[in-house]
Amino acid sequence: MVIDVTEDHSLFDPDKKEIASKDIKEDTKLEYFEGEIKGKEIPMHNNDDYKMDSLAFSLLFLKIDRVPKELLNASIEDSIMFINHINRWLWLIPNLSLSSLSKTAIAGLRFLEKKANKFLQNK
């Protein structure tokens, strides 16, 4: 997920109006970038169950601090597979929680969840 900010780190609402970070509340809607995230890409083989499980483990056990950008740009099937692996780890280890993840990691998971939900609603 990419969020455009101004020089003083203000954000924009969906109508492209500047909003200061101090004015943001839990229910404030923000503008989100819906396009492809550019950058160096690591090849993601479609439906690679082992890779998805390894990435989910790495994220939940704080080996990495964010959802990798190749996964943010992955197919909907891979996004759903990754979310399923996250949920499986959370189910297998009762004391495991998303609360220890970075804000960046949580934002990445929310992006994938939103992407998956949008797909499943249109199916």
Which SSEs are present, and which pair or pack?
Blueprint: E1 11-12, E2 18-19, H1 49-60, H2 69-72, H3 76-92, H4 103-122
Antiparallel strand pairs: 1-2
Report on the architecture of this protein.
This protein is mostly helical and 123 residues long. The protein is built from 4 helices and 2 strands; from the N terminus they run E-E-H-H-H-H. It has helices spanning 49-60, 69-72, 76-92, 103-122, and strands at 11-12, 18-19. A two-stranded antiparallel ribbon has the order 1-2. The longest helix has 20 residues, at 103-122. It is globular, with a radius of gyration of 16 Å.
Structural key phrases:
single chain, 123 residues, mainly alpha, 2 domains, 4 helices, 2 strands, globular
Low-confidence runs: none
Oligomeric state of shown chains: single chain
* Main beta sheet strand tally, sense and closure: 2 strands, antiparallel
Helix content: 40-55%
Task: Tally the helices.
Answer: 4
Listing every helix as H and every strand as E from the N terminus to the C terminus, the arrangement reads EEHHHH
Give the CA-based shape.
globular
Average pLDDT, all residues: 80
Q: What structural category characterises the helix and strand content?
A: mainly alpha
Number of domains: 2
In terms of DSSP E residues, the strand content is: under 5%
Compute the gyration radius: what is it? 16 Å
The beta-strand count equals 2
In order across it, which strands form the biggest sheet? 1-2
Gap between N and C termini: 23 Å
